[in-house]
Specification:
74% of the residues lie in helices and 4% in strands. A two-stranded antiparallel ribbon has the order 1-2. The chain has nine helices and two strands. The longest helix has 26 residues. It has two domains: 63 residues, Arc Repressor Mutant, subunit A (Orthogonal Bundle); 142 residues, Four Helix Bundle (Hemerythrin (Met), subunit A) (Up-down Bundle). It is mainly alpha-helical. Helix 5 packs antiparallel against helix 8. The relative contact order is 0.14. This is AsnC family transcriptional regulator. One of its GO terms (molecular function) is DNA-binding transcription factor activity.
Length: 219
Amino acid sequence: MSEQKRPATRADEIRQAIEKDIFQGVLRPGTRLDEESLAARFGLSRTPVREAILQLVYSGLVVKKPRQGAVVAPLDLHRMVQMFEVMSEIEGLCARYAARRMSPDEKARLAELHGRAASLCESRELDEYYAVNRAFHDAIYDGSHNEVLQDMARSLFARLAPYRRYQLNHPHRVEGSFAEHGEVVAAISAADPDRAQAAMRKHVTIQADIFAEFVSIMS
């Protein structure tokens, strides 16, 4: 488990800017993403733009079409909710096993991450909060001590990352996220697998509900 987050690359920054434009309706479904225009917009070469587009394709926000190239995909709310349903079960299992298997040092690390998020929540530094949030979930995956489950959780987390990041913009959502994390930490610290699983499932389900509300407002 890494102690520090991976530094954001130029491609990450471009991807996040495009994600924001998609979720805010600036880039509508069917809009073509032209590499040359995007490179000019960000003052960069086409290489990080191309990498950012590939990341967006992987998450499902962008699709590649013959003769059109990369275009903004329709937001498939039904599929997104299904992905969150699976994610809630996978992360719930991770939390369950973490409550049973985490070492004292791993529990201390989880509590430290939660404490680090407190000031970021209060100051609403959403990008920084999301980075710690991701490390928090990653620590729980590691704490499950089940490599198959870890691989599944990380793969699906990567697919849902744009949605999970953007729902933090909802009013008071970051405060809710922090409180839900607190419930998970308390259950894992108490070695209560049933409570840990239920708390994590609740946390992920709320994320899905919040993002679905965002999409319905946008539509």
